[in-house]
Each structure stands twice: as structure tokens, then as C-alpha cells.
Amino acid sequence: MKYSEAGATVHFLAERNGFDAVCVIHDHGIGIPEEDQQQLFKAFHRGSNVGTRPGTGLGLLLVNRCADLHGGKLQLNSKIGEGTTVTVRLSVFGRNL
What is the DSSP letter of 41? Predict the structure, then answer.
């Protein structure tokens, strides 16, 4: 939400897809520069275009590590000026864990 304009809509979807729980978060915010996208999973790295917005550079790193620890995956799609979509997929249904 902090990377979108005040009052902008941020979409959250949670659904089942086969054996997976899928959570999708989509905003129409500032987007993440392509050269920063792979670096976002390193501690304390933030997009070069965040300006004065506060943050630690740990959010996506923590979500990615949690997904990985649970055998899941995080996918990031972002374009400057169009927004960002983060999809987290966790295998949780119908399997012995």
C-alpha cells in the first residue's frame, strides 16, 4: 500500500488451485525497476525508485524465505508506473506434510 497513491486499490486474492493455496497481491503503484527486481531478495535492498517512503528492505525477503521453508514459491511481476503483482504458492491440500 505504501508504494501506491493514497486511496488506491490494492487487490488481494486467496484461492485453492489443486493441491496449492495461492495468494496474489496486486497494486497499481510505482512498480519496481527491472534492475532492482532480483536484488529485492537480498537483505536491506530496496528499489531505487522508492524515494522517501520508509522501509527496511526486508519485506519480500521474509515472505520469500517463509514460502521456501514451507516448500512454496514466490513470483514477482512488476513494471514501472503500472504496479506490482506478488504471487505466493504453497502446497497444502491433500498431501502428507
Answer: G
- Of 35, 32, 28, 24, nearest in space to 75 by CA: 24
Cα Rg, the chain, nearest whole Å: 14
Question: Grid coordinates standing for 47?
Answer: 528499489
Q: Mind listing the pLDDT tens digit for each residue in 68-97?
A: 999 999 999 999 999 999 999 999 876 655
What is the chain's length? 97
Q: Can you list the alpha helix ranges (DSSP code H) found in 1-97? A: 34-37, 59-69
Cβ atoms of 77 and 84 within 8 Å: the answer is yes
Q: Which pLDDT tens digit goes with each residue over 33-53?
A: 999 998 989 999 899 999 899
Cβ-based neighbour number of residue 78 at 10 Å: 21
